[in-house]
C-alpha cells in the first residue's frame, strides 16, 4: 500500500486529475481561460473534488491491480485533451507552439523507462489499416465539408475554383482546357500552367459536372496518398506501430488540409504521385517508377523541381547513378520544354517571376538568380529567414517532430531543395503559407525524409518522437484549421440567403455571356463566356455581389443603373444585382 503513495506513483494520477479538473473549468466557464474574469468564475470546490477524486480512484485501482502503464496512458490522454481544448479556443500559432513544448515534457516523462508500455505493444495489420482508414475518413469528411461550404456559401472565387470549373466545362464540351475568366479572353489554361494531369478527373466530371465534384476529388486524391505512404514504410521495414503513428501524423498534418482551403488545384496530385514515385524506387520497380515520374511532371511545369531534387538525392546519397541520371535528365528536359512552350505559345512561365527579388533587372533569368545567391548568400538568408517564413517552416517541421533533420546523412537534405526554391525563396506570400496549394509537394518530401530517418533512430528515440509528432500535428492543426469551421457555420446559418442567390443565378440563360463578381462566378462558370468583373468586360448579363463584406460593387452598380444599354432584372439589397443587356 505504501509503495502506491510515492511521488513516482502519485505524480501521473495527480497530473491526470489536475488536467481533467482544469479542462472541466475551461469548458464550463463563460469566460476565456486567458481572461482575468476566468479566475472569479472557477469553482475551487469542484476543481479540488475532481482532482482528488481521480487521484484517489487511480490509487485505489493500483492497490488491487497493476495499472502503472494505464495510469501513464491516462495522463498523456488527459494532457493532450486539455491542451487540445486550449488550442481550440486560442487559435494562435505561437501559443500552440508552447503547448507542444508542454506535451513534449509530458511525453518525456511518459516514455522514460517505457512507462507508456509501447515496447510491448504492436498493433496487428488489420488494426493498423482500420485506424488509418478511420483517420482518412475523418480527414476527407472535414476537408469536403469546409470546401463544399466555401462553394455553396459563395466564398470560393474566380481564382481559382471558377477557372478550373469553366476549364472542365470546356474539356467536357470540346476536350480542350479553355477558359475565358482566367485572363479575360478565350485561351487554354495550359498557356498559363502546363497541367495535363487534369484529364485524370475528366471521366468523373462527365458524370458529375459540378464544381462540387472538383472539391470532393481534391480531398480524395490527397487522402489516397496514404496508400503509397503505407507501402513505402512497410517496404522500409518499419514496424506497424511506427506506420500507424506516421499515417496518423499525415492525416493530422496542418498543411495537408490547409492547402485545400483555397479550393481545388492541380498541386494536390503531387502528394500521392511523389509517394508512389518514392515507393517504386524503394521496391525496385523501374517501369512503374518511369510512369509515376512522368505523371508527376505533368502536374505542372515546376513539378520538375521535385523530381530533380529526388534525382540528386539518388545520385549523392543512394549511389543509384543510372536511375538518378535518368530522372534528372527527364526533369530538366520536361522543365525546359514546358517553359519554352509557355514562353512561345502561352503567357510565359511564372516560375522566374517568383524570384524577382534575386534579379538585378526585370528580364533576368534563373541563371542570374543562381549567380546572385552564389556570390551573395547573405541576401538569400535575409529573404528566407523572415518572421513569417520561419513560422511557416516551424509549422511544416514541428508536426513531424523535426524528424526530417534527424539524420547523419547530410546528402539526404538535398530533398529539401524544393522547399527552399518553391516555398521560402519567393517573396510571394502564398508560396510560404500552409493555407495554399504550394505545400503539397513539399510535405511529401518531408514525410519521405522522416521515413528514411526513422531507420537510423534508436527504439527509445522513436518511442518519444513518434508520439510527439502525432500530438504536435493534432495541436497545431487544431490551432491552424479550426477557424475554418466558421465557414461551415455561416453556410448553414445563411442557407436561405444562399438559396436565393442560387435561384437568381440559375435564371441566367446558359448560352448567355456573363460578367460576374468573383465570388458568384464559380456557380455560373459552366458556359462558353464568363468573365470576372476585374477584366472590365461586360457580357449579356452582369452579376454584382452586393454583400457588404464581399462585393464592393457599389460604384459598378451605379454605373450600370445609369447605362441605357442595360436593364436591372434582379436587385436584392446587400445581396445580389443582375443586369441584362437590352435586346438580349
Task: Draw up the topology in text.
Layout: H1 7-28, H2 37-41, H3 44-64, H4 68-90, H5 93-111, H6 125-152, H7 158-174, E1 178-179, E2 187-188, H8 202-207, H9 211-223, H10 226-235, H11 240-252, H12 254-258, H13 270-282, H14 286-297, H15 304-316, H16 321-345, H17 366-375, H18 377-384, H19 387-397, H20 417-424, H21 440-454, H22 459-481, H23 485-493, H24 495-506, E3 514-516, E4 530-532, E5 541-545, H25 554-561, E6 566-572, E7 576-581
Parallel strand pairs: 3-4, 3-5
Antiparallel strand pairs: 1-2, 5-7, 6-7
Helix pairs in contact: 1-3, 1-4, 4-5, 4-22, 5-22, 6-9, 6-11, 6-23, 10-11, 10-13, 11-22, 13-14, 13-21, 14-16, 15-16, 17-18
Query: How much helix, percentage-wise, in residues?
Result: 55-70%
Characterize the largest beta sheet: strand count, sense, and whether it forms a barrel.
Answer: 5 strands, mixed
Radius of gyration: 27 Å
Total strand segments: 7
As residue ranges, the low-confidence spans are none
Distance between the termini: 91 Å
Strand order of the largest sheet: 4-3-5-7-6
How many helices? The count is: 25
Strand content: under 5%
Mean pLDDT: 91
| SSE-based structural type | mainly alpha
Overall geometry comes to globular
Outline the structure in words.
- This protein has helices at 7-28, 37-41, 44-64, 68-90, 93-111, 125-152, 158-174, 202-207, 211-223, 226-235, 240-252, 254-258, 270-282, 286-297, 304-316, 321-345, 366-375, 377-384, 387-397, 417-424, 440-454, 459-481, 485-493, 495-506, 554-561, and strands spanning 178-179, 187-188, 514-516, 530-532, 541-545, 566-572, 576-581.
- Helix 10 (226-235) packs parallel to helix 13 (270-282).
- It has 25 helices and 7 strands.
- It is mainly alpha-helical.
- The protein is globular, with a radius of gyration of 27 Å.
- It has a 5-stranded mixed beta sheet, with helices on both faces. The protein has a two-stranded antiparallel sheet with strand order 1-2.
Amino acid at each position: 500500500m505504501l509503495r502506491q503513495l510515492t511521488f513516482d506513483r502519485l505524480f501521473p494520477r495527480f497530473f491526470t486529475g489536475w488536467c481533467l479538473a482544469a479542462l472541466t473549468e475551461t469548458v464550463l466557464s463563460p469566460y476565456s481561460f486567458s481572461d482575468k474574469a476566468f479566475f472569479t468564475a472557477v469553482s475551487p470546490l469542484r476543481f479540488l473534488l475532481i482532482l482528488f477524486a481521480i487521484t484517489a480512484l487511480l490509487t485505489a485501482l493500483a492497490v488491487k491491480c497493476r495499472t502503472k502503464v494505464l495510469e501513464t496512458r491516462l495522463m498523456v490522454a488527459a494532457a493532450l485533451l486539455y491542451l487540445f481544448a486550449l488550442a481550440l479556443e486560442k487559435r494562435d500559432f505561437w501559443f500552440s507552439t508552447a503547448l507542444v513544448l508542454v506535451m513534449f515534457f509530458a511525453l518525456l516523462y511518459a516514455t522514460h523507462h517505457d512507462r507508456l508500455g509501447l515496447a510491448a505493444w504492436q498493433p496487428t495489420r488489420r488494426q493498423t489499416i482500420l485506424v488509418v482508414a478511420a483517420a482518412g475518413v475523418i480527414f476527407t469528411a472535414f476537408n469536403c465539408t469546409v470546401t463544399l461550404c466555401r462553394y455553396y456559401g459563395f466564398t470560393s472565387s474566380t481564382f481559382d475554383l471558377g477557372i478550373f470549373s469553366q476549364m472542365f466545362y470546356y474539356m467536357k464540351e470540346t476536350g480542350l482546357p479553355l477558359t475565358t475568366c482566367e485572363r479575360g479572353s478565350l485561351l487554354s489554361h495550359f498557356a498559363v500552367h502546363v497541367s495535363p494531369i487534369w484529364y485524370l478527373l475528366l471521366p468523373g466530371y462527365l458524370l458529375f459536372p459540378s464544381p462540387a465534384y472538383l472539391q470532393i476529388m481534391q480531398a480524395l486524391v490527397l487522402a489516397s496518398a496514404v496508400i503509397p505512404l503505407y507501402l513505402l514504410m512497410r517496404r522500409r521495414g518499419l514496424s506497424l506501430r511506427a506506420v500507424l503513428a506516421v499515417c496518423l501524423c499525415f492525416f493530422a498534418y496542418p498543411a495537408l488540409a490547409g492547402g485545400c482551403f483555397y479550393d481545388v488545384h492541380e498541386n494536390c496530385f503531387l502528394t500521392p504521385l511523389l509517394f508512389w514515385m518514392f515507393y517504386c524506387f524503394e521496391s525496385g520497380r523501374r517501369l512503374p517508377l518511369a510512369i509515376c515520374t512522368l505523371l508527376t511532371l505533368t502536374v505542372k511545369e515546376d513539378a520538375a523541381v521535385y523530381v530533380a531534387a529526388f534525382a540528386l538525392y539518388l545520385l549523392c546519397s543512394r549511389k543509384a547513378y543510372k536511375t538518378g541520371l535518368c530522372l534528372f535528365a527527364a526533369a530538366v528536359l520536361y522543365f525546359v520544354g514546358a517553359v519554352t512552350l509557355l514562353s512561345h505559345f502561352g503567357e510565359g512561365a511564372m516560375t522566374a517571376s517568383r524570384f524577382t527579388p534575386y534579379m538585378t533587372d526585370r528580364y533576368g533569368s534563373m541563371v542570374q538568380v543562381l549567380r546572385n545567391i552564389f556570390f551573395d548568400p547573405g541576401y538569400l538568408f535575409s529573404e528566407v529567414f523572415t518572421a513569417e517564413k520561419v513560422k511557416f517552416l516551424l509549422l511544416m517541421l514541428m508536426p513531424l517532430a523535426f524528424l526530417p533533420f534527424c539524420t547523419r546523412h547530410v546528402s539526404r537534405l538535398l530533398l529539401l531543395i524544393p522547399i527552399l526554391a518553391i516555398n521560402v525563396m519567393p517573396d510571394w506570400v502564398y508560396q510560404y503559407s500552409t493555407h495554399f496549394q504550394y505545400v503539397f509537394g513539399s510535405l511529401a518530401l518531408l514525410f519521405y525524409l522522416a521515413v528514411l530517418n526513422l531507420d537510423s533512430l534508436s527504439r527509445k528515440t522513436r518511442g518519444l518522437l513518434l508520439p510527439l509528432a502525432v500530438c504536435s500535428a493534432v495541436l497545431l492543426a487544431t490551432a491552424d484549421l479550426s477557424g475554418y469551421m466558421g465557414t461551415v457555420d455561416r453556410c448553414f446559418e445563411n442557407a436561405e440567403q444562399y438559396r436565393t442567390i442560387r435561384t437568381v443565378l440559375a435564371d441566367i440563360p446558359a448560352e448567355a455571356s456573363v460578367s460576374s463578381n468573383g465570388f458568384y462566378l464559380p456557380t455560373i462558370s459552366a458556359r462558353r463566356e464568363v468573365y470576372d468583373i476585374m477584366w472590365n468586360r461586360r457580357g449579356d448579363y452582369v452579376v454584382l455581389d452586393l454583400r457588404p463584406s464581399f462585393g464592393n460593387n457599389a460604384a459598378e452598380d451605379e454605373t450600370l443603373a445609369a447605362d441605357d444599354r442595360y436593364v436591372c432584372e434582379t436587385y436584392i439589397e446587400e445581396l445580389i444585382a443582375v443586369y441584362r443587356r437590352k435586346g438580349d
